[in-house]
Structures
1.
Amino acid sequence: MDTALAEAAVAAWREVDASISAGDCNGIPVLWAPLPGPLQAHLVFRVGRADEPFARCGISHMVEHLTLSALGEVPYRMNGAVTGDLTSFMVEGDESDVVAFLDHVCRTLHALPRERFEAERTVLRTEAARRTPDITAGLLYARYGPTGWGLMEAEEHALRAATVDEVQAWADRHYVAGNAALVLSGPPPAGLRLDLPAGPRLPLTPSRPVQQPLPTFVHRSSRVAGTGVVLPRSSTARALLRHGQRRFTQRLRGDQGVTYDVNGTWLRVAPGTIHATFCADTLADKATEVCSTMLDELDRLALGGPSEAELARDVEQMRRAAQRPEAAMATAVQRAVDMLHDESPAPAAAGAEKVVRLTPADVADAARQARDSSIWIVPNEATLPAWYFRDYVAWSSERVDGETYLPRAEPTGDMEPHSLVLGERGASLVLARQRYVTVPWDECVGMLSWSTGERVIFSTEGFRLLVDPAKWERASEIRSAFDSRVPAADVVPMGALEKPAAPAKPAAAAGSAARTRSPRALVRSPGFLLRLAVPFLTLAVVWWTQVGTASPPPPVSNPSFGAQPITILEPDGRTVTIGGDSSSAPAPAPSGGHLDVGSLMLAAVFSAAGGVALGAAVVRLRQRRRATSAKAA
């Protein structure tokens, strides 16, 4: 690599480091960096979605909305945001605007406007309804299930389950001085006060991966293909992210023209660990090509890493990034986040020095780690090479022992449950071919509960078990078992489940005599009388023929029964004894003939059919006559 280029890049980032200052306000660390324009401020707290319980997911978002809702209309720009590990309040304006905004936030966090609780809950539910699926959130759920960072894909259950007292308690516990940092785009303004109560810093909640063999993939109804990988947080991992995004963009958009946007992001999911995402949008008929190209380029990086020219290009882009006006502000924000994660913030120039020393082998090693830890989400239309991946675990490995409950109807397919087992250890749904969905009680993170009786429980492994009382015998016992096993704090009340209404029956056609005729008129009609008369007449003839002319049945004998008498009930009501003192049945009474039940049933079927046909013919004939009379008139 060109030595002059490397030295210039490192020198540029040394200037960025030198422009950042640090101080303190009421025990809260304050960083500031020069940025032209109005004064900007970022008040950051180390709490977010990944720290929340499953049944109270979204509670930090409620805190943020309630805090800003009390501000009303203001003449400056402001906003708030909640990510997996952070809550941020941002403002841009005059110095007096920034001071007033930060004073309001610090004061309101610990006196949330209770009168706005219901209104903001509705606002947040509306916001959630317009949110589109995010592939990064889906990849996090596939890796971590409904815990920690996997909750990024979960619904905001706090909007249904949390009370205003719970929201206030959450704010009092986590939005404290020891868990905050402030970043400014200039020196602290006069009158700045961050009146937050004292409190500890919140360590990052660990996210435990589910038991999945890697690499693996899952299909989804999506127009985005992507992969999530886990790597040590380092300059090498971030370099891999940049090189991968460049290569994917060049192949997919530049060379092949099969995608519009390629994106790469990373998140700190544990101390010293990041989750990186590569994704690209695609059309259905190009999904296989997009996925195959991404796999191919990741393999190329794993085999040989980037070229020397690619490494030099990366260093040049890094040098140019340091010259942007927002570089110092962005570096200060990253340094504040490092402090909130209890990680020593390294100077940006130190990171630049590591980048200029990277070799193709360093990046190739990171690419191999990424490939081996990858989970992919691909569109349903995509076909991936089976040899490349290991099977995604979609079923539990075992079922619990306990009381067995059966469905009301016989299962008609492989995906319909055959039984439900509830035991001391957990609950298991049993399907065909020895497939199970098991949720141990001690691994149950929460339950959705509908007033109409439905229940869904979730396990840390990402399995969910749904019970619909309309489909199970002894449904009340099942519901009681679920309710008694899941703590009330882990239950999300969902209200009444609105099921699709049954399709309405078509209205009777205008002028249809068969649908509008009164019962009396129907009985008097010739078609109806013929439909009844023909079957009865036919049955009478068959009865007379069978009873009057048939000969009695031959004697039934079976001497092998010995002395043990056995009595059999014949179809005509007579009893026949076999064995005992006589090995033959007594002769029937002289006045009775033998009735062939099979012949009688067959005659009944044919006579009924004939009666229906004859009656229909009469009805059609009458309708033609009426139509002819009406035309003549």
Note: The CA atoms of residues 65 and 123 lie 9 Å apart.
2.
Amino acid sequence: MIEIPTESPFPEPARPRPGKRRIDRESRPRIAAYVGVAVVSLALGAGGALLVVGHDKSATPSSSAGPATATTGPHAGHQGMAGMTAGATGNQPAEAGNKAVHISPARQQLIGVRTATVTQRTLDTTIRTVGMLAYDETRMAQIHTKIAGWVERLYVDYVGKFVRRGQPLFTVYSPQLVSTQNEYLLALRAQKELGSSHIPEVRASAESLLSATRRRLSLWDITDQQIEQLKRTGQVRRSLTLYSPFDGVVLERNTFEGQYITPELTTFKLADLSTIWVIGQIFEYEIPLIKIGQDAEIEFPYDQAGRRLKGKITFIYPEIDPQTRRVKVRVEFPNPGFELKPETYVTVLIRARAGKRLAVPKEAVIDTGAKRYVIVALPNGYFEPREIEVGEPTDDYFQVVGGLVEGDKVVSSAQFLIDSESNLEAAMKAMMMSMPGMDMGGGSMEGMEMPKNQAPPEKRGGPPPPQTDHSKHESMPGMKMDGEGMEGMDMPEKQAPAPKQVPPPDHAQHEPAGPEPKMDHAGHGQ
């Protein structure tokens, strides 16, 4: 019979003593990091407290120091940009508000502060808009014949050709014209024969017939010279010649040689370019600034020499374009030599005078969209934002409606830096007012309400605080690192060494020395 050993061949690991915890080697760096962070935090807090106390002591003027400027006011303790002091001082003007800031002269020169005086000025407005050259509609003509016929000869045969006044355009043959000329010659002969009659009615009839035929020829655009020539020669003209009524260019041509034309057909369309129009567009708010007869100028974008032509406004159109919300304005310009071409884009300049008004420079006005305000320069280096009301802008100024008086000085340069400091002061004031006990009026910590000598709770009538028995508390486990720790921390003095890690047995490496002994279970009791 083989006896089975009851004890394990491997040593049992040592168990830690009750009340003590084993510190793993891997947790030691983490515990050290926690302790280091705690030490650094305590050091920073102590250093900050010392700095605050030292600053308060340095801010208190001593009896041996010179006269120092005392900063008072709701924001005396707040410091903004370098060289800018918020709040009020002993030299603060009476008209300064709670948003006033003080800027030293050196700082003003550094940031480039410039001021301008609000005064009466002559306000000139220049309206610049885009215009387009157009034909003078009062100097355009369409050529129609008053009789039907056939075109025999054409003198102007293409569009754009320049024609002179009295230049022939075309000739037309009309049977009606020939018959009317014959009637005129007959009436002329009858007037000569019956003009010496002793019967008044006969003489009057001959005169009436001659006058009617002559008038018919005149209505058909037969000139007096042509009628006189017909009367002198007695020869009927087979065709009628039509002439240009003025100097201009041909815009349309709808007739050809041999074409049959009627009175409703437009044979030619002519335009006189000695005067040309410029059609410009202005906004609705600019309508009160212009009037008929006002001077205007045009510039050509392609003209490098900056040539300008002067004209006058002759018409303001009565309707507003629904798409662009603009009003058309017509300006007339002389066009000697026909240099100006229609459909050319130009720049229209209309100068308007609004008279003498109280004005502020444009660059001094800060426009937020809903409001406009300026930075007013006060005496003793103080600056304050002030909301104003202005009129329509001119070339360089705004008309002052309210908020400023003549003689006020406003900042025209670097006003955005001053405005940002003023807004910062307002924000700090709102924050301090919203936090109880945070009014740092004198630049120290006197505004903070702190209890000085507070009596114990039992002397103030309240119940005593509960007593804590610290003897029952165990020390923080794991805070003793081999005898090296922080003072005041209860840590175990001695820690049992960690047991060695014994690897599990590998039965594959062990071979049996002999055949495994057989166990006789027959001898064992059930």
Note: The radius of gyration is 56 Å.
3.
Amino acid sequence: MTEINHKQIDNSNNNNYEVEEDIANKRVFKGNKNIVIAFISVAISVLPIIYVSRVLDNIGIFIPNVSFLSLMLALLIILGFMLLPIKPIKKVEDKSKIPWYDFMIILLSIIAPIYNFFNWGTNAYRYIYYDFYLFEIVIGFFTIIAVLELTRRAIGLAMPLVTAIFLLHMFFGYKLTGFLKTPKITIVNGVANLIYYDTGIFGVALQVAATVIILFLIFSQFMIKLGGTNFLFNVSLSIFGHVRGGPAKVAAVSSALMGMFSGSTTANIASTGVFTIPMMKRIGYKPEFAAAVEAVASNGGQIMPPVMGMVAFVMAQWLGIDYSQIVIMAIIPAFLYFFALFIIIDSKACLEDIKGIPKEKCPIFINTIKEGWFYLIPIISLIFFIVVLKYSPEFSILYSIVAIFLAKGIKKILKIITREDKVFSFLIIAKNTYKLILTVLKNAGTLMLTPGIVTACCGIIIGSLSVTQLGVTLARYAVEFASQNVIFLLLIAAFTCFVLGMGMSSLPAYIMTVIVVAPALLDFGIPPIATHFFVFWFSIISFITPPVAVGAYVAAGIANANGYETGIESMKLGFVEFILPFIFVLNPGLLMQNTIDVVLIKFLFAIIAVAFISFGISNYFFGKLNTIKRFLFILGGLLIISLNYRIVILGILLSATAVILQVIRMRKNKINL
């Protein structure tokens, strides 16, 4: 039986991670270099707060959007080339050295964004007429190359390679034949569109990263540093730890909640898996199953509203709708995902007689809430501002950051007023608060490096497509190739999303796939909302799907399990992620795209379908199932989830047959229901 030394689990050492695993191989500095890194990181966090809060506007200083984004890109480039080496560093002593060529790259590549920051407002009128100086094109070209290289250092070769292909096509596509042929684009026009207009690097993707994602990173870092993630973990443990298969259910719930603070499946696994996986193994779950539960739950954290791995912010901007609408649409799909996971976890526990943790060794729910109630205030306030008041994500997050301080401050003040040394205590708190703020701003600025540079790289793809119109052409040919067969088109789209999203965290995976895949689905007539949800879900599916299965392999490493077998188990546990995206397109009711009565009916059928499929996959329904009954449950569930009423009836008949056969068997063997 598992041993828990403390009733309140403290996993701060694991989830107070400062840098995502994507950029874990970074240089480490001391002394003056470290001060420079800290200053730049803090600046990356502070500038968006100043810009979003309109502080400068109120005193008569107006900064154009492109100028602001240019300054942010310059800081990201400096930070990136200082922290990220050209290749993995093997010698410890080399981790504190910056080679001369990285200094040269920094100097050459920041000229254009710094020039933009100071001059774009006055040059904008000239740019309307495509009037550019030669040096503007040259310095812009250096910046484009630097963004590609920094993206490679941050997340690997795949994305910059795809981006380079689009760049080459923009400049040399006029030499091709057929549907890939483009008008001749000069170097001047190409570079200008990417650097000096808001259609390229300084477009919507970087805009969202520099105004919304960075604020969310600050919010999440405050919650992590103040112990908010520990509180959520302990709440999950207090509710589910002692029930049948408890640690696995704790993994599912805590990982779903962690999705509010992390934009990475593997970061979720690292923060919760180090506790949940050993607990699952100790109570009887096999290593592969335990690792798969954590991998699937952590991947589910990326589709969990209100944040959805930071994708929701970009999706709302791209669709041109309120962020609150994205949050509401994501509720039913996320519920079905974790509902299926819970059923399989519980069925596995029943099948193998796996108990929970002794109740006396779990945190007490009431005590946990009493000690950490104030952590709920910023989370509730974030949802309230976004969904109820319909504030923009930027202001909602800003107000929620203030709510963190108010909530934590109230508790501190209540403790201090009972002490005699009140003044000294206030001074200590002020000092600690100052250190906390600097640490959070530094961490958030460092974490911004990956989404910031990735969205800049995506801007190159978007800018290239806007010039060549290749996206429109590819969409038209994809629709023709599918021969008006929507299922065939969706299968092609799903496979493309899987390939393009391999190895990337949720945000870059979504951006990359939506740029390439979405135009074809939209051209076919599929609603934009269904298209974006379809693309998003399939863009992150590679985390739990062999042969890639990055999330499954990371979890398997913690569990000392076989990585490939963990990936297979992950696919079974996460089957909803393979099915629901098709339903989004064929029947958008699950995205609340219908009247409330229709949505509720479809939701009810979806719950029934997911339950039946889960019974079949887990091989349990009040007892072990034989092959025929498993087949009937799975096939019946698949037919029901089609939400086509004629097919639904057939699915219900098949599943009902399996239920009746199982009940007859149980009565025959005198097994209690």
Note: Confidence is low (pLDDT under 50) at residues 1-23.
4.
Amino acid sequence: MSILKLRVTAIPPVGLDGSSVIGTNLSNQQVDENFLSLEERKLAKSGGTMTGFIVLHSDPTLALHPATKQSSEAAAAAAITAHNAAGTSHVATSVSVAPTGAIAATNVQAALAELDTEKLALAGGTLTGALTLAGAPTVPLHAATKAYVDASVPALAASGVTVTPAGGIAATNVQAALQELDAEKQPNIGYTPVNVNGDDMLGVLTVLEPTTAGLFNAVPKAYTDVASLWRTSNPLINAGFLIWQKGTSFTGSGTTRVRTADAWWARVLTGTGSWAVSRVSVVGAGFDEYGGGKWALKLQRPNGNTGLGSLQIGQSVESLVAEAYSQNSMMLSICVRLKKGANYSGGAVRVLVKCGTGTDQNVLDTYTGESTLLDWNITPTTDYTTYSNQFAVSSTMTEFGIVIQYTPTGTASSDDSIYIQDTWISRSVFDEPTLRVLLPFAHEPFVIELLRCKRYYETSFPYGTTPSQNGSYFYPLPCFVGGVVGPGYYPVNFLSPKRTLSSYTLTTFNPAAASNQARNITRNTNGSGTGAQMLSSLDWFVLSWFNPSGTVAGDVMGVGWEYSDNNF
């Protein structure tokens, strides 16, 4: 058997060192090395890293073709042109990002802002949470951990803290100073400390006026002085509408004010609308500082009335009392207990407290130097409810008063009204439930309250009767006989001293005719020249008249009278 031997010539004909090997016989080793060199210099189909550029024969035409530089740049330019044509700005807010980690933002701009606000700036800042350090500090300016500080600061005993002796204290350290103050009596300081567990004062204690109300606050004498002005701390008269001397129902129209339940006056703020005030009973009401009295004042727009002016009821406080409050600069509490009628057409019930710098004016008129201490809106319900508020008095006021009003709408139905059961004003320091039980805040007994009301209104007519001509009631007068017809003068004592000798109205009433003349009751004849006047005293006034002709001894003369303060 013969053996076939082959000669293999490597392609390309280049040696591993780059020299030409054409016509050169290669050994088996050289052949192996050349195949290995080819393997290392080719780009495998599975991928790899090029060490030089690739120049393609043209731009790509299929999705998986490699892209040339020029085709990539052309595609980018086209995308920008299309983006601009669509009107979309190249801003970070239009580049969306997915929220991740602690970042909640959904676009680049918001994410940057979020990162900026949540970071701690190198210039310094305030952390909103705890910071845990890597370890204890090793250089002077390192941040220190709590454990490091706790271990570095030694515990101090009171005896080791020095103090400088001052006043009556001779001790030089805190421990000794505390012991010195705690001693029952120390001759070197000259007084006996008060024991917080209870002690007896041996002298006068001066305290500051408390800034907040408190049941156990110590208060200065000025606090209790004001509370005794009228025996109660309520400056309002007939605050629970117990007294109705002049009658139990009243009507009026326009802006002219009219006396109703004694010290309370009513009117329409603007326009020619009408109003009515009447006394109504409160079923089941007790006579106390919370529940109010047995009567309520009903302020109503009459059925069918279309007037839209605000209906007002108000009371003024005398300058004598108002100035006492202003001299003791203070906060006052105000409470109003009311409800709305079944056909109430107004919105909020408005409560105003006004003050002025004049003297004894009526709050429904404009005060001299008027200002508003409280403008308070109450949303009424159909049940009696007590509402409360506070206001500060003016240090310059010489008068103040309260106004309660509502503004109706549309046409009045049968019960377009508010019912006011109680009103009171008191010093805020006493505005504690326990003290309300102990002190008679809102009301006086009937007789005392009646005398307070008679300071401003008094009449010879029976209680609750509206004075009128030809009203049957009269005040008996002496007769002048022997041919003397007068004039006659007769002094009449008031039950309660009056406020003023000037701002009042005294009216006389004929008991059996439509005139104001004194009448001879026996002969049914009228006198003449009847009048009434206060002279020099607040305690009495003088009636004057001429007897009718034919009057003889034993005849009875009589006339009715009414005194009314013009502002209260």
Note: The longest helix spans residues 69-85.
